[in-house]
Amino acid sequence: GALLVSERIDREELCGALSPCSLSFEIVVENPLELYSGAVEIQDINDNDPVFPSSQARLEISESVAAGARFPLESAQDPDVGINSLQTYQLSANPHFALDVQTRVDGSKYAELVLEKELDREEQRELHLVLTALDGGSPPRSAHVQIHIDVVDANDNAPVFNQSTYKASVRENTPSGTLVAKISAYDLDDGPNGDIIYSFSSHTPAKVRELFALDSATGELRVKGQLDYEETKLYEIYLQAKDKGAVPGVAHCKVLVEVVDVNDHAPEVTVTSVYSPVPEDAAPGTVVALLSVTDLDSHDNGLILVQVSDVNDNAPKSSQDSYDVYVLENNIPGIPILNVSATDPDLGRNAHLSYTLLQNDPTVGHLFSINRENGTLYLLTSLDHEDQVEFSMMVQVQDGGTPPLATNVSVSVFVTDLNDNPPAVLYPHPNTTATYTDVVAPGTPAGHMVTKVVAVDADAGYNAWISYTLLQATDPSLFTVGLHSGEIFTARQLREDDAPQHTLVILLKDHGEPVLSASATVSISVAEIVKEVLTDLTDVAPANDPRRHVTFYLILAVILVSAAFFITMLSVGIFKCYKWRQSKEIFNSSRSTLYRTPGPFHHIDAVRGGFTPPNFYHQVYLTTDSRQSDLCKKPFTSSPLGSRQSTMRNGDPGLYHQIVGTASRPPASDE
User: Fold this and answer.
1) Gene3D superfamilies recorded for this chain (predicted)?
2) Which of 307, 331, 440, 463 lies at a C-alpha separation of 20 to 30 Å from 391?
3) Are 516 and 463 in contact (CB under 8 A)?
4) Is-above-0.70 flag for pTM?
């Protein structure tokens, strides 16, 4: 298990300027199969001297340059890293210049000469200085460069850059010749003293000069070599502008170039171990091979994406389990009324949804249709609220997996009402040639109900609420109509001088929007209940009616039956009075205060068709404590439904009499 070095290791050759420098490895232990990852960090030793690009440097400085002026010097390079890399510079002693050591963003050092005392050409034409570069090793390694400075006559104006620092970014795969940045400087002098030449500063590293090119005339900085984000992410480039004077003036600027990573490295797959051959009885889960994947790119470009294949394990899910849709009747055919929405978290075909309308009811298939792709439900025909109010259906949402999964969604469509039906008159029937005449006796007091207009509206709710108004009458002061009941009452007591025949036109209106209406014509005769009505009906009968003899015999039969009924009722009444008086005497003689429950009453109906309205009858009440009968006559008030049923069943109005008699029970001994 010992890890040995098989050959000489050169950190600078393996990693260059990268720090730390590490070599990764994996160890496989078999039986049981286990994988261990490790790394060997290559530590740097100070085995390289700093190196200057050249052994000598020459500068021309005008005697007019003011103190504080800076002059960049070429930088030394040291391939070692960390403390063993270049750490500082030293300048030989002199009365005019000092050395200022600066640090770049990548940690490397560079030096600049700073003029502390102004130069005088008449006093000294040239200066000789020695610049020493030192690393941080123990003992330190060094390099030297001879600096020769010529003191020249003054040049009034030096070039000036429009900004001291430029910033740019380029992709690492940018082709050669691509413009990175353009620097610009100006010089106020005329002639050659104002002409500017751009160049790299003396301390620009050689590597930068290999990757970038600078146009000396235009100041355009372009890509020259192949950039590599994995090698260097940021370049700090120092440039200068120099005029063409006898003693050229110089200005300096800095360009920061950021290298943007691109996905230019394919993942590298390494098979660490292969367990082969595999026994046929190998248990499920046995490791066959170990794979490792690396990518030299950074951030998202360096991730390896492992694709997980989808299994159709999720059924479609609707945003809601049921939908309630409200549609106005008389709709335009073909309109969309609903969009059934569903989702499936699976991928690809497993998430492709289709919508189907389950047709348990054949009617639904003729009225509704659904788009298979997007779930839009369409109404194919116009609906009628009066025909059907509600439709129920089931929509199936199915995915495209194998096998497919499905979800059912219930949909209820409610047809809302429009006011598209006017009131329909049931009584008096509007579509018949027969004339129905309601009869009221002379002297009838005010408030007596004569008859009732019965109507229905096929609409629903407020649209079916019918109101009744008196539109036209022979005598408007004689009759009134109930606004919501349709009942016709006498507005005052009938007088002898009132007309014998009255025709009323009743206006029926619903409360829909727009309002729909109908009218009903009611004929009322003022006559005695039996005699005069018979006379009137005989008078209005057509002379040439072949059934007039049959009608006469029918009327005669009704009269005879009525007379027999009257005699029978009179006999029963006398008998009841006799029994009542007898029980009264027994009660008084026994001095008992026991209250006797009234005995069963007799309810006898007689219908006389064709003479009077079906809602007219008499009630006679006999009480145990009265010495004489209390006779009262009351109109019959029925519900609209009852009136409708009665009218539809009988066809013609008739006379209805009811006499109710009550008497006390006989004593217990009589029972």
Assistant:
1) Cadherins
2) 463
3) no
4) no
> Residues, the chain, total?
671
What confidence tens digit (pLDDT) does each residue in 469-480 have? 999 999 999 999
How do residues 59-91 score in pLDDT, each as one tens digit? 888 888 889 989 999 889 999 998 999 999 999
Structure tokens at 427: 């009584």
Tokens in use for 158?
Answer: 């030096």
Q: Beta partners for 501?
A: 525
Q: Is the per-residue pLDDT at 621 higher than 70?
A: no
Backbone conformation region of residue 13, classed left if phi is above 0, alpha if psi is from -120 to 50, else beta: alpha
Q: Which helix (H) or strand (E) holds 650?
A: helix 640-650
Rg (CA), the chain: 60
| Residue where a domain stops, chosen among 416, 442, 457 | 416
Select the more confidently predicted residue: 598 or 107: 107
Q: Are residues 350 and 385 in the same domain?
A: yes
Residues 392, 343, single domain; the answer is yes
Q: Are 248 and 260 in contact (CB under 8 A)?
A: no
Phi/psi of residue 285, each to 5°? Answer: 95, 0
Instruction: Report the greatest alpha carbon distance in the chain.
Output: 173
Neighbours of 436 (CB within 10 A): 18
Q: Which two tokens stand for residue 113?
A: 């000469």
Q: How far apart are CA 439 and CA 522, in angstroms?
A: 11
Strands 454-456 and 424-427: antiparallel
Residues 35 and 65 in one domain: no
Whether the Cβ atoms of residue 74 and residue 54 lie closer than 8 Å to each other: yes
Q: Is residue 655 part of a domain?
A: no
Give the start-end residues of each E strand in 205-288: 212-214, 220-223, 234-243, 250-260, 268-274
Identify whether residues 128 and 182 lie together within a single domain.
no
Question: Measured in Å, how far apart are the chain's first and last C-alpha atoms?
Answer: 127
* Domain edge (last residue) among 99, 117, 152: 152
Which pLDDT tens digit goes with each residue over 122-140?
Answer: 788 899 999 999 999 989 9
CA dihedral 362→364→368→373, nearest 10 degrees, is -80
Amino acid, single-letter form, for residue 648 = M
527 near 501, Cβ under 8 Å?
A: no
User: In CATH, what number is assigned to the domain containing residue 409?
Assistant: 2.60.40.60
Domain assignment present for residue 354? The answer is: yes
Q: What range defines the domain where residue 336 resides?
A: 317-416
Nearest alpha carbon to residue 110 among 261, 236, 279: 236
Distances 504 to 229, 489, 525 between C-alpha atoms, Å: 104, 12, 11
Domain-located, residue 85? yes
Same domain, 333 and 400: yes
* Rounded Cα distance, 206 and 77, in Å: 9
Give the Cα-Cα-Cα angle 457, 460, 462 (nearest 5 degrees): 95
User: How do beta strands 165-171 and 376-379 pair?
Assistant: unpaired
Count of structural domains, the chain: 5
Q: How far apart are CA 623 and CA 576, in angstroms?
A: 11
In a domain, 198, yes or no: yes
Q: What are phi and psi of 464, to 5 degrees?
A: -105, 5
Single-letter residue type at 4: L
Q: Are residues 327 and 347 in the same domain?
A: yes
Sign of CA dihedral 10, 14, 17, 21: negative
Beta strands of 43-103 (E only): which ranges?
A: 56-62, 70-72, 86-91, 97-103
Do 458 and 519 lie in one domain? The reply is yes
Environment class of 193 (CB within 10 Å of its CB; exposed 0-12, middle 13-18, buried 19+): buried
